[in-house]
Amino acid sequence: MNTDEFRKYGKEVVNTVADYYDNVNNMKPFPEVEPGFLFKQLPWEAPFQPESFEAIQQDIETKIMPGMTNWQSGNFYAWFSSSSSFPAMLGEYYSLMFNIIGFSWIGSPAATELEILVMDWLAKLLGLDKRYLSLNVDGTMNKGGGSIQTTASESLVACMVAGREMMFDRLRKNGMSEDEIDQHKYKLVAYVSDQTHCSGEKAANILGCKVHIIQSDSSFRLTKQALHKAIREDKSNGLVPFFVCGSFGTTNTSAIDDLNGIADVAEAEHLWYHVDAAYAGAALACPEFRNLAHGIERVDSLNINPHKWLLTNFDCSALWVADSTYLEKGMCIKREYLPQNEGNTMAREFSNWQIPLGKRFRALKLWFVMRMYGVSGICSHIRSHVEQAKWLERQLMENGNFEIMAPVVFGLVVFRINPGALNLQGNLNSINRINIDFIRRINGEGRIFIMNTLLNEQVALRAPIGAVH
Ligand code: PLP
After folding, report:
1. Which GO terms describe its biological process (predicted)?
2. pLDDT per residue over 346-368, tens digit each?
């Protein structure tokens, strides 16, 4: 394809994208296809002769689109939304144009430095503590800072590695030999709650350490007391606590852990303290939500996903660390072909902040979003979703047939058919079955797509409000 053809087809693609967004709310949010539907329609080998754009475009419309789950539909409530906006798409397009693999400052200075600036902008927009900023007011580079990762899950693994490095260093300083430290690898234990996103447990599995899943309280929060008790038990069994993950907005109910209380324990026990704010962290753009995050200024690492609720297309996961020393220690592998600007602290090597070597130029889309929406536009976006969630909560309560299962703080409404109001006699299983049946009937209509979760053995429906368009 030459540049003239690219100009022509590029316009067609942009038109198709615009048409899609104009019509997405009229499409079914999930497709009516059976597993294997595409294998029956497309060849099982790549074509030997080149094919035309038109042939592929036709397959997009007739074979791919009918099998798409339409995450951008306003009728999609199945999981937290996948944020998308035209400014982000334009930024992403420039990223495709440059197509750099920005693992090193010299790999593309503008990409590294824009990422540093954009992450500082975002940290300030969310009201984060200055420990998480890369640039000090005097223009020097801080020990902490932000970087854009692929996902919250990947950020968590990287931070757990950093926490392990921090613990090893501590053991070393306490006079332990490398052999003894090696033995301790198998005694390390990370703490999450039964409401922590599954990526917490997965990260521990990847590291090969133990994970202690602590029961949350009646409000689905991890408390200081529960963490303290779990650590006491584990230490008496010879284990070595090293990491705790708190949540600001859990997946099930958007509950907020006792962030400040957990910080007390983490400090006393020398744990790496990570906060997963993948979904609800975006709300911190609005000052009225910041008092809910008391203690967040004390964490070692903090992660939010602009690709969930901040108008930025997947993938864009923002990770801040208060001090990058242990993250870099855990992630840096030196080779001759990988330049390291050791003498120049202004030239950050982002491959030492993440699991993959390669890094996409993701800062562009976040930059476009922050510039084209402005802080005011971002705050109105968040507030309008919270208002819509409150509206839904009111409708459900006024209807009388439903009960709200968790406080509606952000954009997530969790509810179920109220067994009392409908005079439903029966045990938990039959109430659960009725709610599962209700979800099947809603999804069966094909108008909206919604999912359930399980809270204390009770089936509940989750309706996250977050569609941009
Ligand atoms: N944390 C929370 C609270 C989530 O809801 C999710 C996904 O929905 C994740 C982490 C994982 O996000 P990612 O897909 O970026 O790994």
Report:
1. amino acid metabolic process; carboxylic acid metabolic process
2. 889 999 999 999 999 999 999 99
- Contact criterion met (CB below 8 Å) for 462 and 252: yes
Query: Which ligand 1 atom sits closest to the C-alpha of 277?
Result: 3
Q: Is the pLDDT of residue 134 over 80?
A: yes
pLDDT of residue 425: 64
**Is residue 421 pLDDT above 80, yes or no?**
no
Asked if residue 134 lies in contact with residue 348, where contact means CB atoms within 8 angstroms, the answer is: yes
The mean pLDDT value of the chain amounts to 95
Q: Residue 17 — very low, low, confident or very high, per pLDDT cuts 50/70/90?
A: very high
With the most atoms of ligand 1 within 8 angstroms of its CB, the residue from 76, 149, 199 to mutate is: 199
Establish whether residue 279 lines the binding site of ligand 1, counting it when its CB lies within 6 angstroms of any ligand atom: yes
Distance 178 CA to ligand 1 centre (A): 35
Question: Is the CB–ligand 1 distance for residue 309 below 6 Å?
Answer: no
Q: How confident is the model at residue 426 (pLDDT cuts 50, 70, 90)?
A: low
- Residue 372 token pair: 């084209």
